[in-house]
């Protein structure tokens, strides 16, 4: 009689662990003290947190705690995560939030939707990121201007209401500088003294900023802004005039800095401004007051015409999102959202070069009238 070979006690890579072993491992971890569990979880990539949250209520509590975030910070285990707001016109819910996720054990990245409460203004707010929090500011609720501020904690994807602005605003322009949120315009009241206010995220309080004067306010009825190099820059959408809030005083900004393009397509890395235009990236030489091309990317994306695009500082790298509209026929349009990650490097003679690490389609929709609204990178 032929003997069957003995089964090895070592688990093969393609075999599933017996339930008893899985239960004993889980039980062992559950018996560890809190500080040790936190230390273990802090060393695991956040892409596995949704799976780990299913282990127990205790794990879910740890995974959304501020203590875990602080431990990851201390251990140097923080990661950057991307968040994308899409604007879909002519629908009841025009602003939709997504996060870019890498599938476990895979290099594939996809945009995954995040639910937002109904209380958030869907029409014409502005959105900024401070630390690990996304702020949705102002907007229109039932055709009335709103002063509300809603905040999503990117660590837990939970929402809360923050202190309201002093003035209600529709379609304001918000930017971040030194952890403070500057909000300009959007007021139905023509009073220039309430044109801009600033929110201190540490004290959670609002106060008005010195007025730039009625003439400038009229020029900045529709505007956009950016915090850069210790100053707040505000650009008129009508005349393209650029103004600068420097040490509490307003003055004319350097015209070459805005180059006629949108401030929303800019990002700052190591105090250098980068501009994304149809996936071609330029950087601003603040000494020469000139925009220069980021070298090394020519023709890498195969784009020969204008496409809507946004860029963001992703842990010292540049990540670019752009739209591709594919017309199958007159009645059917498919929109693809592409994403590319680019490493930047300073070389001799002051040149800055870019190297594409990867690019791929991360989202596809048949919904018409889709635009990129905002892109953020949160360190978690």
UniProtKB/TrEMBL annotation:
Pfam families: F-box, Kelch_FKB95
InterPro entries per UniProt: F-box/kelch-repeat_ARATH (IPR050354), F-box_dom (IPR001810), Kelch_1 (IPR006652), Kelch_FKB95 (IPR057499)
Source taxon at top rank: Eukaryota
Domain F-box: 26-72
Entries under PANTHER family matching the protein: F-BOX DOMAIN-CONTAINING PROTEIN (PTHR24414:SF202), F-BOX/KELCH-REPEAT PROTEIN SKIP4 (PTHR24414)
Protein known as: Kelch-type beta propeller
Lineage start: Eukaryota, Viridiplantae, Streptophyta, Embryophyta, Tracheophyta
């Amino acid at each position: 009689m032929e003997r069957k070979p003995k089964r090895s006690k070592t688990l093969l890579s393609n075999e599933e662990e017996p339930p008893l072993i899985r239960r004993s491992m889980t039980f062992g971890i559950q018996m560890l003290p809190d500080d040790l569990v936190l230390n273990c979880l802090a060393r695991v990539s956040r892409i596995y947190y949704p799976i780990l949250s299913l282990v127990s209520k205790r794990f879910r509590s740890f995974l959304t705690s501020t203590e875990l975030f602080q431990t990851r910070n201390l251990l140097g285990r923080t990661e950057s995560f991307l968040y994308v707001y899409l604007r879909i016109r002519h629908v009841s819910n025009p602003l939709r939030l997504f996060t870019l996720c890498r599938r476990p054990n895979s290099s594939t990245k996809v945009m995954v939707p995040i639910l937002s409460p109904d209380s958030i203004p869907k029409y014409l707010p502005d959105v900024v990121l401070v630390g690990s929090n996304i702020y949705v500011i102002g907007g229109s609720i039932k055709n009335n201007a709103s002063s509300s501020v809603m905040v999503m904690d990117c660590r837990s994807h939970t929402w809360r209401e923050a202190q309201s602005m002093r003035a209600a605003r529709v379609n304001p322009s918000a930017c971040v500088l030194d952890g403070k949120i500057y909000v300009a315009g959007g007021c139905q009241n023509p009073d220039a003294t309430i044109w801009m206010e600033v929110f201190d995220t540490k004290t959670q309080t609002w106060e008005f900023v010195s007025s730039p004067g009625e003439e400038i306010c009229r020029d900045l009825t529709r505007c956009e802004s950016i915090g850069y190099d210790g100053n707040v820059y505000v650009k008129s959408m009508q005349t393209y005039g650029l103004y600068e809030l420097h040490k509490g005083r307003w003055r004319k900004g350097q015209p070459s800095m805005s180059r006629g393009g949108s401030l929303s397509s800019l990002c700052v890395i190591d105090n250098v401004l980068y501009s994304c235009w149809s996936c071609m990236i330029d950087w601003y030489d603040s000494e020469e007051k000139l925009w220069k091309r980021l070298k090394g990317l020519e023709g890498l994306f195969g784009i020969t015409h204008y496409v809507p695009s946004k860029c963001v500082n992703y842990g010292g790298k540049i990540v670019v999102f752009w739209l591709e509209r594919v017309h199958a026929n007159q009645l059917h349009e498919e929109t693809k959202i592409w994403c590319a990650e680019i490493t930047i490097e300073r070389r001799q003679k002051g040149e800055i070069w870019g190297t594409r690490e990867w690019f791929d389609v991360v989202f596809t929709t048949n919904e018409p009238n889709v635009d990129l609204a905002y892109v953020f990178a949160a360190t978690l």
